[in-house]
Amino acid sequence: MQNSFLLAQTQNEPVSTMLDQADTSQALPNDSSDAVKPDYAFALQLASVNSEQGLASTLKKMAKRAPSIFQGKPILNVEVADVNEHTYYRLKFGGYKYLKNAKADCEAIKRQGIDCWVSNYTDNRIYF
Question: Which of 112, 16, 127, 121 is nearest to 69 (CA)?
Fold first, then answer.
């Protein structure tokens, strides 16, 4: 099942969705109590800030600027990175199995005024 949130569509290419497959991170396998991990390789990095409070305020600003991107229940993850003795919180959006789909959606997000780039998927889900 695919997420119904659509970003990019052209006349000659199939519609790209925010997810290549259903978000199964909360599903349980039949014979185990461990959660099934999503099979994503890519995500879209939307921001990198130096505090958790900055992450929340940046997300709110983006949601006001381009509400259609954040409608429904998009997959949002945060990657915490230590670089040169500083901690950064990287906001990542979506989950993609295929690079071409991630690139297409990144271009669609850029057209809505939010910068992004394709990055690795981080399974550290946040909710807003």
Answer: 112
**For residue 59, which phi and psi values (nearest 5 degrees)?**
-60, -45
Nearest partner of 43 among 29, 27, 25, judged by Cα: 25
Tell me the residue type at 88.
Y
SS (H, E, C) 48-97: EECCHHHHHHHHHHHHHHCHHHHCCCCCEEEEEEEECCEEEEEEEEEEEC
Contact, 51 vs 89, CB < 8 A? yes
The pTM is what?
0.71
For 4, the 3-state DSSP assignment is coil
Residues 45, 40: Cα–Cα separation, whole Å: 14
The model's pLDDT over 49-88, given as tens digits with 9 standing for 90+, comes to 999 999 999 999 999 999 988 888 889 999 999 999 999 9
Helical residues (DSSP H) of 1-128, grouped into ranges: 52-65, 99-111
